[in-house]
Structures are given as structure tokens and as C-alpha cells.
Amino acid sequence: MVVLPSPLHFSTSFLSSATASTIVALCVFFALLCACIIIGHLLEDSRWANESITALFLGLCSGLVVLLVTNFQSHDILVFNEDLFFLYLLPPIIFNAGFQVKKKRFFRNFNHILLFGVLGTVISFCLISLGAFLLINRIGEVNLDIQDILAIGAILSATDSVCTLQVLSQDETPLLYSIVFGEGVVNDAMSIVIFNSVQSLNFSSINAVKALELLGTFLYLFCTSTILGVAVGLLSAYLIKTFYFGRHSTDREVALMMLMAYFSYMIAELLELSGILTIFFCGIVMSHYTWHNVTGNSRTTTKHSFATMSFISETFIFLYVGMDALDIDNWKASKASIGTSIAVSSTFLALVLIGRAAFVFPIANISNYFVTRESAKIEFRSQFIIWWAGLMRGAVTIALSCNQFSHSETTSQEDSALMITSTITLVLFSTMVFGSITKPLIEAVLLKHSKQTTSDSADYHEELGLLFLESNDSIEQSNNQPFLRWMMRYPATTVHYFWRQFDDNFMRPIFGGWGFVPVVPGTPLTEEEIS
Amino acid sequence: MVVLPSPLHFSTSFLSSATASTIVALCVFFALLCACIIIGHLLEDSRWANESITALFLGLCSGLVVLLVTNFQSHDILVFNEDLFFLYLLPPIIFNAGFQVKKKRFFRNFNHILLFGVLGTVISFCLISLGAFLLINRIGEVNLDIQDILAIGAILSATDSVCTLQVLSQDETPLLYSIVFGEGVVNDAMSIVIFNSVQSLNFSSINAVKALELLGTFLYLFCTSTILGVAVGLLSAYLIKTFYFGRHSTDREVALMMLMAYFSYMIAELLELSGILTIFFCGIVMSHYTWHNVTGNSRTTTKHSFATMSFISETFIFLYVGMDALDIDNWKASKASIGTSIAVSSTFLALVLIGRAAFVFPIANISNYFVTRESAKIEFRSQFIIWWAGLMRGAVTIALSCNQFSHSETTSQEDSALMITSTITLVLFSTMVFGSITKPLIEAVLLKHSKQTTSDSADYHEELGLLFLESNDSIEQSNNQPFLRWMMRYPATTVHYFWRQFDDNFMRPIFGGWGFVPVVPGTPLTEEEIS
Questions:
Q1: A367-379 pLDDT, tens per residue?
Q2: Chain A partners of B40 at a C-beta cutoff of 8 Å?
Q3: Which pLDDT score, from 0 to 100, does residue B190 have?
Q4: pLDDT averaged over chain A?
Q5: A156: which residues sit within 8 A by CB, 6+ positions away?
Q6: What is the pLDDT of residue A491?
């Protein structure tokens, strides 16, 4: 720890030395975060760099400085803390994603999202485990048991939804954004479920029943987590609508929204459900109901403060991953040669590439085969981008890897350290390389290409159809024939229509929402707030 | 710890048991915070209750529930954590106070604030120490050494600026608010300095030189902390003005303001200065310069999100103090009879009452004697309210008390525990009783009384004078005679005039501020934002 000379005998700081170390760490992180924001801003126009890569790079540099200052000894600041990540950094990101997601598009692609997220993760897990089983133990003197191999399968199946959010744009490539991002959220939950199952599985009796039990667990978790998130979101909407806090205080409304969102995550973790799924759906419900029940000032404040918190957490995570990569103890403990390290990392990378290709292209093509509507088909270029954008591995991968190998009893210390360092190498490489290439790649493959306009314009027409339905609720009485034709052609639209009926007649009178709460005088709705 | 049954064999939660306990604690706190907000809202119209008292009461109740559930065993959730308080809860409150304070009024009362805050705290410390020295060791079998006695003097001198903020209104009683609140901020810093000096002092050689050294330390801390806060604030203004973040992202602006504010606190703590003073002045500078350099959305967001964070922290602190009061280990360790406990607590209360009266009335009357201007005089009714509003003791008192007596080596365990429980009793009593009586008392003594209007209207006239100066910068050329008369009558106004000249000609062109940054199209300034 850096000890600064005290200029005077008396000091105001009566805090303990543990606290002093915390203060140093906080100072370093806050200074670095400010630097990331400023550098990220200056690099805004660059196609290659983004905030994640800047943060990762700055994290690596400052980790190096810490190592130099501490003379290459281990330092607390460089050790990855899972609790910090899962309890404080991940929730705001996922909540904000749910809060800002374009709901219509997300739910229209819901079956794609589930297919890629659930089935895809299972395929990827099986393939990566098989590949690891066949390859890893042949490299150098590595010796892993079956449980470690399966854990690696789960660890490498967790895509990084955070970095994906930064390289894909919700406005430029809406279809891809909703599929890749939605898949990411489901995939996070799925890979954590698989990982835990692997950790708790008894390997003396693997059979079909176990596999079915695993699937049952996932379905149970998915449904209960979603219901919990929706319930907390609706409760917040009901409370704010009933008590009408804005009359007295904007702060109370904003505080209640923040607290209840975070509460949904915590209660899900307490009940051993998937907090990620819960807070994501809580965010969706809050943006649909609660957000419309508060005053104009609260709307602006929540919208931007949630985005800001998410932004700070994202930047912090990448900074942290960068610094953590230089946790010298792991590198020292791994006695493997450079050749072995590179071989393991490359194997990991190859497995990730193949594992993802093995489900993206088949699932997309099979789903294309069943879908009759041209606009819902995923053309090959888009499939390629879906494959590519999901190759990045991030903080979830590192967290799971540390969890599996940090305190392993069955695996030798050298092998454990090698697995952790290889995972870190994979994360750094994939984020830096895939992350910086993705933006230019999307531009080259999709945006500048004429083919894309077809799919986009079809999409646009459908959007128009939805708008048409929305603006004209009495359509079924007045003009039944064209509506029926719509219904036959666009079943998703029909579901949406019935949902709107239910929403307007039952949900919104109870929970509020757009147009169902009197506007407070003096807080005019701007166009941005309504959208 | 409450362990909930897991419904299925596999669990998503691979977090450690320490984390599980954290999750339970977070769940409890978030649920309680939501309850506080809703109950506080429902009690809004009550003159007697406020959010602090609701939170304190809820904290006590839930502490009791925890005790019943754990069968009166000690529980982590009930132990006061100084780091949590000083590193995470106090900074947002003090920053927001600086950010929202009415700057003109604050600086006009600056000499009063310094007199009450510095001289007053010293007088209070001396008197309470003397009283404790004469009384405490005669109660029961209490046996404290001179260092403990002096520490008690410092501990009991720390007023609670948080609760004061809730019972005094900036709009109803602006003069009192700025004096009592400003005094509170200086007093916090001062009592912590005295406390640390007492802890590090060598009692074999107390002499006049030591006392002067103490004063020198305080002046050094006050100046350097202020300069640091101002410097960080100006840096944030300069960065945001130069890079003009709003062009790209509202989130970046908001994030940078939050991070730099918190950074100022951390760097002050790192340099062993007073973080409280630093972040307070950082808040003042940020609201004067930085806030005007950002977009309209960012202005609304920062204003309300800072207020919300401060609100959550305040509520949390009182909840925490309430729960902490039931830290059963302290009550068990203190083997004193109920009579002794009550005697010590009552002595503490009496010392606080006398210690505060001993400086408020003399200082106010002496300052009245030197001030010629009628509006700057503090009449007796106001003196009474200043005395009364500063009687509440809060989290700083508990934090200092825990720090002194939790790990004391020289004092017996019984006496240490007795001191801690007596401090807690004092805090609970003063917050509950003085806190709930203050609002009705102010109404009875000041607001409904005709005398007040004189002082307020004089104040109002002066305010008009300031406005007049501001709106007419060329007054000195065109009409010199009346201006000189103003200058002679209101020296404070003259200082303000020169400050404005300096601000307009030198500071604002560099650091931005109201009217010095082009307004972004589409983000009109509302009246509220300008004020």
C-alpha cells in the first residue's frame, strides 16, 4: 500500500489500516473511472476503440503500475471479488438494459431469444466440454478431472452481454441487438444454472433423468424469476400510483424505484433464483407502468440516472477485469511454460468459436425453415454477426472461473492457476480483438450493404402495422375484414393485439402507465419522455 | 442467520455463506428503506414525526425482530460499521447539502458559522470534559482515565447535521438554517479533529504550546480541505466545459460529476484532511459552475439524483442507528445496574444541554454587540432555536464512541460497554424527543410570532439590494453616490460585489457557469433550473 507522509502530527483520519487500504483503492478506481470517461469521450469518433477497451487497457496499465510499486508482490486491489461483481456491479447494468430495451421488438423476437439462449447454451456447453475432454489433458502436463472439464464447458459458454451492448446499436441494427442482447441475458442465467448443476452433480450416476431434472430446474428458475421480477415491478407501479408520491417529493419516487429494483435482485438471490432474469423483467415492467406514474422530473431523472449507473458499472467492470488480469499470484502459481499457456488459451478460443458456430447457424436456418414471413427470417449476413457478436467473453466468465478453480481441492494448484490465467487471456483477447473489430465489421457486412434494406424495410412495415393497431383500438368493430387478414399474416401482431386489450382494460387501470395517470401541472411531457 | 429452504436440489446461487449473509442483510435493509419511504410519506402532514424518527423507530422494531429470531444472540447486522458510515453514507449527504445550499446566504453568515462551529465546539468540548471529569467517576463503579474523559468531551460535542437538515426548513427559516447547518458541517470536522488529537495526545506534557498546535492543525485542515474541494469542483467544471460532453452523452456528464465529487472526499481522506469539508465545498463549486455547463437533462438528473442519494443515505443511517442500538453484546457486557445506566445517560444529556448553552448565548450576544446592522443581529428567540436544534446527537457520535470504546485497552470492558450504551441512549433520546419537538417549537416560537417578520423583512430588503446590484453591473459608472452609501451600510454586500466582478471577469470565462455556456438546442432552461 502506498503510504503518504502526514504533514502534521495530528490526523483527522482515525480509520483503521484496512480502511486506509480501501480508501487508496477507491481513490485509484475513481481517478481511473474519470480518466476512462474522458478518454472514451475523446475516442468517441473512432470506430475501433470503445469505452470497454479503453477501460480494459487503462486497467492493465494501472495494474502494471501497482505491480511495479509493490515490487511484484500480490496486492488486494488486483484480486477479483465475485461479491462486488454479482451484488453491486451487475444488477444496475441488467436493470438498465431491461428499462431501456425496446419492448415491442424484444417480445416479437422472444422465441428466437429463447432458442438461442437455452438450446444454444446447452449445445455450446456440450460441444465445449467434449472438445475440452478430448484436447486439454493432452497439452503439457495438464490433468483435469471430469468435473473440471464440465465446469470449463459452462464457464466458456457464458457470453458477455455487457460488451455486446456497447458494440451493437439499438437504433442501427435493432433486430440483431434484440436477439443478441436478449440471448445474452438468458444465456447468463442458463450458464450459471449449468455451472451450479455441474458443481453439485454426483458424477457416479449420470443418466437421462438427471438431464431432464436439469432442464426442469432451468424452466422452474426461468418462470419463477420472471414472475418475481414482474411482481416487484407491478408492486412499485401500484404503490406509486396509489400514494402518488410526486405530490410531495420527487426524491421519494426516484428512491422507491431504485430501491425496489435492487430489492427484486436481492430477493431473487435470497430465494436462490436467477437475480439477473428477475431484475431484467422488473426493469421492463417498471418502464411500462411505474415510469409513467411519476412526475416529469422523476422521469428525466430515473431515465438518465439508471443509464449513468449502468455506464459507471460497465466501465468499472472492464477496468477491474484489466487490473485483475495482473493478479500476480495466479501467474506465479501456474508453472506451465509459455507454450503450454498459449496452447491452452488457443484451445479455449477455438472451442468458443466452434461452440458458438455449432448452434447459431443451425438454429437460425431451422427457424428460417419454419417461418413463412420473409421479414422474420435471419439472413446469412445477420447470422454471421450474431455468431461474431457473441464471441466476447467477460466478467461472468472470470467470476465463474475464479469460483471453480480458486479453492479447488481435487485439482492441482498449477492446473487451477493455469485454467484461471488462460480464461483471463481469453477474456482479454476476445474483448480487445473481437470488441474492436465488431463495429467496423457490422458496418462492412450489414449497414453498407443493399441487401439489409429489404429486411429493414419489411420490418418497418410491420412496425407501421403495429402502430396502426395501436392508434385505432376500435378497428375490429368498424372494419373486420382487413384486420382478419392482418391477423392471419402476422400471428405475433395478434398476440400483441390481445395483450394490448388486456393491458388497456385490466392492467393499466390498476397499475397506471402511459395516459392513465393525470399529468402534474407544470411538468409538461416532452416528446422524449413519451417515446 | 435466517436460512431459507431451497426448493430444488440445484441452486443458482454459488455464492459463499458470507455472501448469503450479506444478501439477507441487504434484503432486510432494502425492504425497511421502502417501508420508511412509504410510512414517511403517509406521515408527511404530521408535525411531530419525520423520516428520521420513522426510520429510527423501524430500525428499533426490526432490531427487536432480529433479536427474537436469533434468540438474543449477537448478529452482524446489528453491529455498527464505521467504514460503511464514513465512506459510503456520509459523503452523499454532505455533498448534496453543499450542492443545494443557498450560497449567498451561507457566505453572508460565514463569520457566524465559523464562530459557532470552531469557538463553540472548543467551548463545548472543554465544558463537557470538565463536567464528565467531575461527575462520571462518582456514578456507580465507573472508572475512566483522563483520555476517556476528554474523548467523551469530543464525542458529545459532535452535533447531528443530518437530523437538523430534516427539521429546519431552508425556505421557512433561512437564517437559522444556514447558521445551524453551516455550524454543523464545521462542527463535524472540528469534533473529529479534537477527537483524533485526544487519541494521539501524550498526556504527560499538556501545555499552552499543545493547545496552539491544536488550533494550528485545525486552521491548516480547514484551509487545505476547502482549497482541495474548490480545486476538484473547478476541475470538473473546466473538464466538462472544455470537452463539452453533452454533445455526445448525458450519462458521461452525470457520471463525471458524481465520480469527481466522491473522488474529492476520498482524496481528502487519503491526504488525512477533512473529507466532510472538502466534499461540502466541492458541492458548492459544482452547483455554481459545473451544473451550468451541462445539458438541461443532466441538470434535472443531477439535481434530483443527488437529492435522492442523500435522502436514501439519511434514511439508511437512522435505520442503522436504530438497529445498532440493539447490539446485544454491548448491553450484555455492560454489567451496570439500570440506575447507573440512567444516571450516566442523564449526565450526558445534561452536559450536552449545558455545553451547548454555554457557547450559543454568549457568542450570539457578543456578536450582536459588534454588529451595527439590525438584520444581522440574532434575537433571543433565534438563539434559543439555534441552541435547541443543535442538541440532537447522531451517527457521528455513535461512530466516535464505538471507535474509542470498542477496542479500548486501558478501560475495563464493563465501563466501555456502559459508555457505548449510554451514548446510544443519548442519541435515541435526543433524536426522538428533540427531533419531534423541534418543528412545533419553531412554529410556536418563530413563525407565528410577529417579531420575526421584522428581521425577515430586513433580510428581504438586503436581498433586494443584492438583486439590484446583480441586475445592474454598470451601476458604479452611472450612479456612484447611492452605491457608495450601500457599500458603507452593507460591507458584506460590498464583498459580494467584488466577488461578482472577479467571478464574471475571470472565473466564469474559464470555468463556465450561468449564462457562460451556450444552451444546447432542444433543452430549454426551465425556471426551476435557472433558480
A1: 888 877 777 778 8
A2: 252
A3: 78
A4: 78
A5: A124, A128, A348, A351, A352, A355, A393, A397, A426
A6: 56
Q: How far is B153 from chain A (nearest CA, A)?
A: 17
- A340-355 pLDDT, tens digit per residue, is 888 999 999 999 999 9
**Mean pLDDT within B478-493:** 53
**Sign, CA torsion A378/A379/A384/A385:** negative
Cβ-Cβ contacts under 8 Å, B217 against chain A: 8-10
**pLDDT tens digits for range B210-247:** 777 777 877 788 889 899 999 999 999 999 888 876 66
Q: Tell me: the pLDDT tens digits for B518-528? A: 555 444 444 34
Share in percent of chain A as helix, strand, coil (round to 5): 80, 0, 20
Retrieve residue B92's grid coordinates.
Answer: 452523499
Helix axes A296-324 and A90-100, enclosed angle (nearest 10):
140
Computed over every residue of chain B, the mean pLDDT equals 78
State the DSSP string of A86-105.
Answer: IIIIHHHHHHHHHHHS-HHH
CB A36 within 8 A of CB A58: yes
Which residue in A34, A255, A301 is closest to B259 by CB distance? A34
* HEC-encoded secondary structure of B279-298: HHHHHHHHHHHHHHHCCHHH
Contact B26 A83 (CB under 8 A): no
3-state secondary structure of A244: coil
Q: Find all residues with CB under 8 Å of B197, minimum gap 6, and list them.
A: A10, B214, B217
Picking from B254, B304, B314, B396 by the largest number of A CB atoms within 10 A of its own CB, the best residue to mutate is B304
- Per the CB < 8 A criterion, the answer to whether B434 and B471 are in contact is no
The CA distance from A205 to B95, in Å, is 59
Q: What is each CA distance from B366 to A22, A314, B174, in whole angstroms?
A: 45, 56, 22
Q: How confident is the model at residue A105 (pLDDT cuts 50, 70, 90)?
A: confident
pLDDT tens digits for B328-360? 777 777 777 788 888 999 999 999 999 999 999
Q: If you count them, how many residues does chain A have?
A: 531
Mutate to test the interface with A, among B1, B8, B12 (most CBs of A within 10 A): B12
d(CA B120, CA B110): 14
The residue with greater pLDDT, A403 or B266, is B266
Say yes or no: ipTM exceeds 0.85.
no
C-alpha separations of A2 from A20, A34, A499 in Å? 10, 21, 60
Closest in B34, B217, B243 to A8, CB measured:
B217
> In terms of pLDDT, which residue wins out, B181 or A427?
A427
Which architecture, in CATH terms, is B82-447? Up-down Bundle (1.20)
Please write the tens of the pLDDT for every residue from A285-304: 999 999 988 888 889 999 99
Nearest to A321 by CA among A385, A374, A386, A399: A399
Residues on chain A touching B80 (C-beta within 8 angstroms): none
User: Is the separation of the CB atoms in B335 and B329 below 8 Å?
Assistant: no
Q: How far apart, in whole angstroms, are the C-alpha atoms of residue B157 and residue A286? A: 45
Within 10 angstroms of residue A1's Cβ, the number of other Cβ atoms is 13
Residue B104: what are its φ and ψ, rounded to 5°?
-55, -50
Cα A504 to its chain centre, rounded Å, is 31
DSSP string, A156-214: HH---HHHHHHHS-TTTSHHHHHHHHHHHHHHHHHHHHHHHHHHH--TT---HHHHHHH
Chain B contact set for A87 (CB, 8 A): 19, 22-23, 26
Count residue pairs from A and B with Cβ separation < 8 A.
Answer: 237
The answer for A515, left when phi > 0, alpha when psi is -120 to 50, beta otherwise, is: left
Query: For residue A128, what pLDDT is reported?
Result: 93
Is residue A2 within 8 A of residue A28, CB to CB? The reply is: no
Vertex A217: Cα angle to A215 and A222 (nearest 5): 95
